[in-house]
Write a structure and sequence with these properties.
Blueprint lengths: L2 H5 L3 H8 L5 H25 L7 E5 L6 H14 L4 E5 L4 H9 L7 E5 L11 E9 L2 E6 L14 E3 L6 H12 L9 E3 L3 H9 L5 E5 L5 H8 L4 E3 L5 H7 L3 E6 L15 E13 L4 H15 L23 H9 L3 H5 L2 H54 L5 H20 L7 H19 L12
Helix pairs in contact: 3-13, 4-10, 13-14, 13-15, 14-15
């Protein structure tokens, strides 16, 4: 704008421009604490917010063709639908999986672990996402009469599986409870699966312990059809379950394995540890939900040994159920993960954590800003009132002419600072009331002998 155009502006308009509509300094001082509190709340939220879930996780499964490997392959297909790649590492079984999970350098996130193999391992950093299926223990033996107790196998030749296998670990625990020790008269062999069954058929061993894939219904049916071989019934199953927390009692009715041949011919009880889906404690919560959902699809159907919907289940045995898994079993997936694609739900979940402190701190704080702003402006006005009262008290005592002149000069300074101070126009009424009171005090100072000084029109 040219100088000539500025000069053509009405004087009243230029004067109005000098009257501040808002005091930016006071607004900043009022808004500052709210913004700082909000920033601190957001910083705390960001510190605790979970990062985005990784796109790849690793599972330690089992040997090729095993039920562990088969389940892991099904998990991989389900996770792939949500953009998560599941890397499957073959292993020797439960103990190998547990060893990898406890090794920080193995980079394994989850694994299938049979109950009862963690007795000698440090599992403090591991959690369970739930039990996913039973692994029944089938004990076949040769005897002219049914055996009632495992202690009757003392002094026999027993095939209990190779070193490091879950079958051997379970067999040793049960035999020890029946006072059968590895170094005693009983001969313990490391045969398992088909070699163990062949050894029993050829009379090279007296009893075999089968678990996991070796105890599949087809193998049990085959052995039951063999003359002279019996399947051990656990009449003390309830006592075993009380003593070994990781065991469950399975009650099978007559004919369960072969209806036509009515095998077994009478109801029997079996013992079965549950297989748990074990994870590191730092597994991302979103992946925890996704894995449990996959477990529902893979293990939730009815089988010979379980009812529909029985697994996965938050059965706490040797590992604590993770807090994320417990929340999932109690209330299911969150709203976002139930209605949005996985990646979008993950993003929305993290954004919500940041927006929450904004809603809790910033919104109420902004409602307080006008009050704080008004309080700061009025404080400056009220400070002048304090100075006026001090001058008026001074005028009540005898003062010399020089002192009175000094008081009047101070009063002039107060009035000048009131006029020149950056008081917004919205507070003009309070400002002009202050000036009336200044006029009143000036009259008292100028006419100390008058009993009735002029009114201030307040």
């Amino acid at each position: 704008m040219t100088p000539d155009a500025q000069q053509t502006k009405p004087r009243s308009f230029r004067l109005l421009q000098r009257i501040p509509r808002i005091s930016w300094r006071d607004l900043a001082a009022s808004l500052g604490p709210v913004l700082l509190a909000t920033a601190a709340a957001v910083a705390v939220a960001i510190h605790f917010v979970q990062p985005a879930p990784p796109h790849t996780i690793t599972i330690s499964a089992g040997p090729d063709g095993s039920i562990f490997r088969s389940a892991a392959e099904k998990y991989r297909k389900i996770l792939a639908r949500n953009g998560i790649e599941l890397v499957i590492l073959p292993s020797e079984g439960s103990q190998d999986n547990l060893k990898r999970l406890t090794d920080e350098n193995s980079h394994v996130d989850i694994g299938f672990v049979q109950g009862g193999v963690a007795s000698d391992s440090d599992v403090g950093d591991l959690v369970s996402l739930g039990s996913v299926f039973y692994e029944p223990l089938a004990i076949f033996y040769r005897s002219p009469r049914p055996l009632r107790r495992l202690s009757e196998l003392r002094g026999k030749r027993l095939a209990i599986g190779p070193e490091g296998s879950g079958t051997r670990s379970l067999a040793l625990a049960l035999l020890k409870a029946n006072e059968i020790q590895p170094q005693g008269k009983t001969k313990l062999l490391d045969l398992a699966g088909t070699p163990a069954m062949e050894a029993l058929l050829k009379h090279r061993v007296d009893a075999i312990f089968l678990a996991g894939d070796s105890a599949a219904p087809g193998n049990i049916r085959q052995m039951l059809h063999t003359k002279g071989i019996r399947l051990f019934d656990f009449p003390q199953a309830d006592a075993y379950v009380r003593r070994f927390r990781y065991l469950s009692k399975l009650e099978l009715p007559a004919g369960s394995f072969d209806l036509g041949a009515d095998l077994p011919r009478q109801p029997l009880a079996m013992l079965a540890p549950t297989v748990e889906l074990v994870a590191r404690a730092d597994l991302h919560p979103a992946l925890s939900d996704l894995l449990i959902e996959a477990a529902h699809q893979v293990h939730g159907r009815a089988t010979l040994l379980q009812h529909a919907g029985e697994f996965p289940a938050p059965l706490e045995h040797e590992y604590p159920i993770s807090a994320d898994a417990a929340r999932y079993y109690k209330s299911g997936k969150s709203f976002a993960y139930s209605h949005l694609p996985f990646w979008l739900a993950s993003l929305a979940d993290r954004i919500l954590v940041v927006l929450l402190p904004l809603a809790i701190v910033l919104v109420p704080g902004l409602r307080l800003v006008p009050t704080l702003y008004g309080w700061r402006i009025r404080t400056r006005i009220y400070r002048r009132y304090g100075e006026l009262m001090a001058l008026e008290r001074a005028a009540l005592t005898p003062v010399s002419s020089a002192e009175r002149a000094a008081l009047l000069a101070r009063l002039d300074d107060i009035e000048k600072s009131t006029i020149t101070g950056k008081i917004p126009g919205s507070f003009a009424d309070e400002t002009y009331i202050l000036r009336r009171h200044i006029k009143f005090v000036r009259s008292r100072l100028a006419h100390p002998d008058d009993e009735s000084p002029p009114a201030a029109d307040v």
